[in-house]
Amino acid sequence: MMLQRQGGALLLMVSLLLATLAALAFGMNRAGGVELRSINDDYEERAAAYLAEAGVAAARWSGQVGGCTYRPLSPIPLGAGVVTINASGKDKIDVTATGAVNGTTRTVTGTRLRLFDFTETETIDLAQDMIDTTIEQPSAGPLELLQTLRLSSDKAHVLMSWDLDDIDDNDVLVLSATLTLVPTAASGVVRQVAVHRVTTPWDKSATWIKARPASSWNGGIYANAVVATASVGAASATWDLTGLFDSCASKRLAANGVLLRLVDSGQEVYFHSLEAATSSRRPTLRVVLAEEC
């Protein structure tokens, strides 16, 4: 009899334990389902919003590549969703774009959006209005008028600045800005040269320790973020400075020029400067502009 009672009690405990585990499992599955639906809903809302923003950008692009004439766009399927775009106007357009993903919709509007004419662009070379110089340690005097620019790891940097009068206009958009330098000698060793934005004013009297007569620095004061990097070997090297020039032209950033430095230690490279005897070897800084519609 005692064994029967103990067996019955044990069976009851096991039954209760299994029931508890089943209840917990049901609760977790339900919570997981709710959480999964919440995550899915959030994804669809974000996806629909991104589609709507893309629709506004597409409307602007249509007007700009169309020579300042907006071309209606049909509903555009993108992945699991679709974006519908309505726009009106010419030189400046009003846009309403709605993104839809699995029944979830989001709408983004843009009013009096500026357009730039991508069919009529202008290319200018700012090198003629540029200053280039080497700063090195131990600190030498101004080296602006030398025919070569020298880079040496943590010992010599190159500074460049430019006159933005030709693009300092709220009615133009910088589509591209490309800096090209020519090494003085071909080399089988590839060296990485980084361009940084200079964050303090300097002039052509700059040295390793002085940005200008009343301002000190140590090898330059520049943003840590790299604007562009190029591999320098046997041929000319090119850096894409489009984002920087667009920010400077629109006054979002101060136009203090750039600093070039070697990324790796124990390296050196020479470039032809603006004073080079042969014009084809001198630095070029070509900027492509689009005017506002």
Structure notes:
- By secondary structure, the chain is an alpha+beta fold.
- The chain folds into two domains: 42-114, no CATH class; 120-292, Sandwich (Jelly Rolls), CATH 2.60.120.
- The chain contains two helices and 17 strands.
- The protein has helices at residues 2-65, 242-249; strands at residues 76-78, 81-89, 92-101, 104-114, 116-125, 130-136, 148-152, 156-162, 172-181, 191-198, 210-212, 215-216, 222-232, 237-240, 258-262, 268-272, 284-292.
- The strands form five sheets. Strands 6-8-15-10-13 form a five-stranded antiparallel β-sheet, with no helix packed on it. Strands 1-2-3-4 form a four-stranded antiparallel β-sheet.
- Mean pLDDT is 83; it is low at 1-34.
Task: Give a summary of the structure in a few sentences.
The protein is of the alpha+beta class. The protein has two helices and 17 strands.
Helix content: 10-25%
Give the strand content.
35-45%
Strand tally is 17
Strand-pairing-aware structural class: alpha+beta
Along the chain, the helix and strand elements come as HEEEEEEEEEEEEEEHEEE
For the record, the count of structural domains works out to 2
What is the C-level CATH assignment of the largest domain?
A: Mainly Beta
What do the pLDDT scores average to? 83
Characterize the overall form. Answer: elongated
Termini gap: 99 Å
Strand ordering within the main sheet:
6-8-15-10-13
Do you know the CATH topology of the largest domain? Jelly Rolls
By CATH, the architecture of the largest domain is named Sandwich
Rg of Cα set: 31 Å
User: Quaternary arrangement of the chains shown?
Assistant: single chain
| Sheet with most strands | 5 strands, antiparallel
Q: Extract low-pLDDT stretches.
A: 1-34
Number of H/I helices: 2
